[in-house]
Amino acid sequence: MSFWDHLEELRGTLFRSVLIIMVFFVGGFFLKETLFDGVILRPARPDFWLYRLLGVDLDLDLINIDIAAQFFTHIKVTFICAVVVSFPLLCYEIWRFVAPGLYENEQKTVKKAFGMGAILFYLGIAVGYFIVMPVLLYFFNGYQVSGSVENTFALTSYISIFTSMVFLMGLLFEFPSVLAVLSHFGLVTREHMRKFRRHAVVVILILAAILTPTGDPFTMLVVALPLYLLYEFSIMICKPAAAQEDQEDAVSE
């Protein structure tokens, strides 16, 4: 294919991807009550499963202090949810675009990586939604510099933490699928991952500090712990150096 043919294929991929997102966006926009009361604001309620499991009480009040905040929050959250729901279809569109340029053995590896990436994305979403978000809410709702200062949170602040913790956790959980592809092509080995474990811990802490909206140590640790466990999982799925050498010998033969 010529450069313009590839560009035409890319244009079709982008068009279909945007169309998929818009379909879910329109559907989610008219399900406002179900989306917000049943999903987005659920971790702020005292009957959320983690609070009942731990036997703790959460008394959290949300207010709106901006005239247009609720409308734009509705649009923002609906768009993010549309991307989350359509993620497997978006992965498929990307796969359709890159697959013709790969060899058969490369197609199998990349296809598995896309499949694993979709699963890990939703796993990261689940970790952020069911564990990280409620832990943060409980901590900050109960933290006071003085008993005379009551905690009342703005809707925009809640949504900011929700989107950064939940959506970004899903994206960060894509790390093992990327490493699986790099390991297949011999760019990363299990020995490399173990060798740079200490460096990875420092990078994870820095990344957690950047991603957390509040920047406090507790939030950083809550975000950093799943990322470190993800790094250890990545070591397990990476090929050892000996296996990669055998693969290179088989290809050369």
Structural overview:
- The protein has 253 residues and is mainly alpha-helical.
- The protein has one domain (3-252).
- Helices cover 76% and strands 2% of the residues.
- It has helices at 3-29, 32-40, 49-54, 69-85, 87-98, 104-142, 155-172, 175-184, 190-195, 197-211, 217-237, 241-252; strands at residues 62-63, 153-154.
- A two-stranded parallel sheet has the order 1-2.
- The longest helix is centred in the middle third of the chain and has 39 residues, at 104-142.
- It is flat, with a radius of gyration of 22 Å.
- The mean pLDDT is 86.
List the helices and strands and how they pair.
Elements: H1 3-29, H2 32-40, H3 49-54, E1 62-63, H4 69-85, H5 87-98, H6 104-142, E2 153-154, H7 155-172, H8 175-184, H9 190-195, H10 197-211, H11 217-237, H12 241-252
Parallel strand pairs: 1-2
Helix pairs in contact: 1-4, 1-5, 4-7, 5-6, 6-7, 6-8, 6-11, 8-11, 10-11
